Amino acid sequence: MKFTHCLTLTLLTLASLSANAQGKYKGEDRGRPVMPVTSNAKWVAECGGCHMAFAPGLLPAASWTKVMNGLDKHFDTDASLPAQDVKEITDYLTKYASNRWSANTSPLRISESVWFKTKHSSSEINPAIWKRESVKSPANCMACHSGADKGDFNERNIRIPK
Fold first, then answer.
1. Spatial distance between the Cα atoms of 33 and 100, rounded to a whole number of angstroms
2. Count H helices, E strands: the chain?
3. Which residues are 158's β-sheet partners?
4. Radius of gyration over alpha carbons of the chain, in Å?
5. Where does residue 68 rank: exposed (0-12), middle (13-18), buried (19+ CB within 10 A)?
6. DSSP state of 23
7. Residues 125, 159: contact at Cβ < 8 Å?
8. Are 145 and 153 in contact (CB under 8 A)?
9. What is the pLDDT of residue 102?
10. pLDDT tens, the chain, 162 aa long
C-alpha cells in the first residue's frame, strides 16, 4: 500500500513538473505576469512609444481587445493606429494574454485587476508612494519594478524610490 501511494505521488509530481516546463512563457508563471518568449516589434514601437509596453500577461484577452478597440479614446488620448497595425498588436496581446481571470472579467486598467489590487494593497504599499514625483501613478511599473519592461515582477527585485 505504501509503495503504491508513494509511486502515485511521484508520478503526479513528475507530470506537474513536465506540464510547467512545457509552458509558453519564460520562467515559471505561478500567478505572476511574465513576457512571452516571442515579442512583437509593432507592439514595442507603438505601445512603447508613449508608455511601457505592458506585458500581455498583465490582462486577459477580453481586456486587450477592449483596449485595442478603443484607441481613439485611449485613456483620454487619441492613440489611433491603422487597422492592420491594430490587428497585429491585438493578435499578439490576446495570444499571450493572462488566463487567470474568469470570462466575465475584463478590466481596462491593469491597476483595476484583482491581482494588482492584492499585490499593491494599502497594507502592502503606503498610498503616499503613488503620489511621489518618482512614481506618479500605479501605471508607472518601472518606478519600482526595474525589470517590468521584460515582464519581471519578482518581489525580490522591487525597489521603492524616494
1. 10
2. 5, 0
3. 145
4. 19
5. buried
6. -
7. no
8. yes
9. 59
10. 565 545 444 444 444 433 333 334 343 444 455 678 788 999 999 999 999 999 998 888 999 999 999 999 999 999 999 999 999 999 999 999 987 765 567 888 888 887 788 889 888 889 899 999 999 999 999 999 998 888 888 888 899 998
CB atoms within 10 A of CB 87: 13
What is d(CA 23, CA 10) in angstroms, rounded to the nearest whole number? 21
Strand partners, 125: none
Grid coordinates representing 88 are: 497585429
| Residue 64: partners with Cβ closer than 8 Å, 6 or more residues away | 56, 90, 93, 94, 97
CA separation for the pair 136, 32 (Å, rounded): 23
Can you give the three-state secondary structure of 18-78, one letter per residue? HHHHCCCECCCCCCCCCCECCCCHHHHHHHCCCCCCCCHHHCEHHHHHHHHHCHHHCCCCC
Reading the block at residue 112, the C-alpha cell is 483595476
Say how far residue 102 (Cα) sits from the centre of its chain.
Answer: 15
At 10 the pLDDT is 45
Is 56 exposed, middle or buried, given 0-12, 13-18 or 19+ CB atoms closer than 10 A? buried
